[in-house]
Amino acid sequence: MSNLETQYDFNQNTILIHIQLLPKTDANQPRNAVLAVGIKNSPPIITSTTVEQLELPTLITKMLSQLEAELPERKAAALKLAEEQETEEISQNYKQRKVEAPPPVPSSTQTSTTSPQKHQLTLF
């Protein structure tokens, strides 16, 4: 068989099935789902429906329930990590900061060491 024959042979291919559950846009509306089925390097067949119309296998339904239950815990862990990273970034910025030296005083305002120092008391 040629490469093209193998590439487009249903039994010789990995079949990709993609299910995307979209967020609810309105509380009274059902949640939408986009389904795609295809093979690598070929356009998929795409359709959309509602989640309620999907007949998902029990295994996927259990996994969705597990994900829903774990999301608050995952959110807390992500917030904690973000806070730790922000604290570390502030610490690194503090350690790396540099204080610039003041600008040099122009030579016309500097006093000469060879001429006598004049101040208000010596002017009278």
Automatic annotation (TrEMBL):
Chain intervals with Low complexity compositional bias: 107-117
Residue numbers spanned by region Disordered: 80-124
Designated name of the protein: Uncharacterized protein
